Each structure stands twice: as structure tokens, then as C-alpha cells.
Amino acid sequence: MRAAYDEIADWYETEFLPSTRPGDPLGIRRAITEHLGPGSGRCLEIACGTGVHAAQVRELGWTPFGADLSAGMLGHAAGRLPIVRADASRLPYADASFDAAITVVAHTDMPAYPAVLREARRVLRPGGRFVHIGVHPAFCGGFADRADPAAVVIRPGYLDGHWTKNSWTSHGVRDKVGASHWPLPELLNAFLAAGLVFEGFSEGGAPVPTILSIRTSAASRQCPSAPASGPR
Ligand SMILES: C[S@@+](CC[C@H](N)C(=O)[O-])C[C@H]1O[C@@H](n2cnc3c(N)ncnc32)[C@H](O)[C@@H]1O
């Protein structure tokens, strides 16, 4: 099976990433530092792509691992971090086998993102940190025309979660592989349903944010409906 990103992996690595990185205009490096932060132990990047964030994760003290669906993207990631080719909604890892997990600009590529969040929670040890860094649901999508960065135009479409290739630019990812969209409450509710506990938020990109970052931790595995323990 060929993954959508197989077709654009070389373009993503050699043209797209270099055009988005100098000066960290979207605040992605800043968000990784702020929300993942320094630590130690195993950190899984879900949908790691070409492994572009592995060096920063390592600099913060973590041992990075990566999972992605696209063999083409992983071809660039090999050598940057240990990788597996896998669907993020069925990760090939044991329960509680990671101390932290991140996903960066990838939730819109995964129509089954609520299932991915459940998998993130499953592979994290209780209390382990999960950091979502994703395109901003309010200001990015097929409904948002960002041709003029100072005056982003929001057209009807935000309220309808959908997948589209519509894009204001022909130099981005959405026009090539398409992207899903979740209105903000739907996205946040999926974290709650997965048992992820909100710990912090930030936005990146100016003057109209492009990135919304969400820091969470994995709730303990105790079933909320289990009878209370103790003397009867
Ligand atoms: C925009 S790229 C982001 C890659 C990397 N995180 C980065 O910041 O450059 C989105 C990635 O999601 C991956 N992806 C899409 N659907 C996936 C799935 N179901 N499971 C795992 N990875 C998936 C794609 O192959 C692609 O590498």
C-alpha cells in the first residue's frame, strides 16, 4: 500500500521543510521546548515524517522514537531516530511503554485522530506527557484564505468537519494530499474522551496564529466507573 505522503516525501524534505523552518516562524520549535520540555526516557513521535524534530527531542534529554505510515517519509527519518512503519491508530507498542509522546502538524493528516489519541494514551505510562502541535483549527483549513497574512479570510466551512484539498496556496501540503478538519470543541472533546488531561495551551505564528499546541498527560488507568476500594 502506498501512503499519501510517499508521493511528496522528497519534496517535503528538500523544499517544504527548509521553506518553513528558518527563524521558527510558526513557533513549532518553541512549542516543543515549552510543552515537551526537558526530560528523560522514551518519547514517541506519532507521525514523525522525516524525523525533523528528533534532534530537538534528543537535545531536551529524551530518547526519540518515531512511527509513521509513509515509507517515503521514513526513508528520510532513518538515521535520525529509531522508526517503525505503522498506522497511528494501531501502534505496535505495548501499553505504557513510553514516558512521553508528541505529534507535530499531523492531526489533520489522520482522519481517525480520536483513535490516535486513544492509542497515545494507551502507549503512555500513567502521568506520561502527550503534546499535540497542530495546525490551528480556527484559522487554518479549506475555509481559511491566508494569502494575505495580515487579513486572513474565514469563509463558511469551519463548522463542518471535513476533508478537503481546497487551499489558498499551491505551495502547501493540503493542496497535494488533502487534510481533515475538526472544529475546536470536537478536537478538544476527543482528548477528553481518550483520557488525556489538559495541562497547557499555546499558539504560534503571527499576526494570525497558524499553530495550536496542547499539552496533556495520560490519566491513570483506573476505570472511573470501578467501585471505590476500601473497607465495606
Ligand atoms: C505534515 S507531515 C508531518 C511530519 C512531521 N511530524 C513534521 O513535523 O514534519 C504528516 C505525517 O503524518 C503521516 N501520517 C498520515 N496518516 C498517518 C497514520 N494514519 N499513521 C501514521 N502516520 C500518518 C504522514 O505519512 C506524514 O509523514
UniProtKB/TrEMBL annotation:
Residues 44-131 form the Methyltransferase type domain. One of its GO terms (biological process) is methylation. Keywords: Methyltransferase, Transferase. InterPro entries: Methyltransf_11 (IPR013216), Methyltransf_Superfamily (IPR050508), SAM-dependent_MTases_sf (IPR029063). The keyword Methyltransferase applies. One of its GO terms (molecular function) is S-adenosylmethionine-dependent methyltransferase activity. CDD domains: AdoMet_MTases (cd02440). This is Methyltransferase family protein. It comes from Actinoplanes italicus.
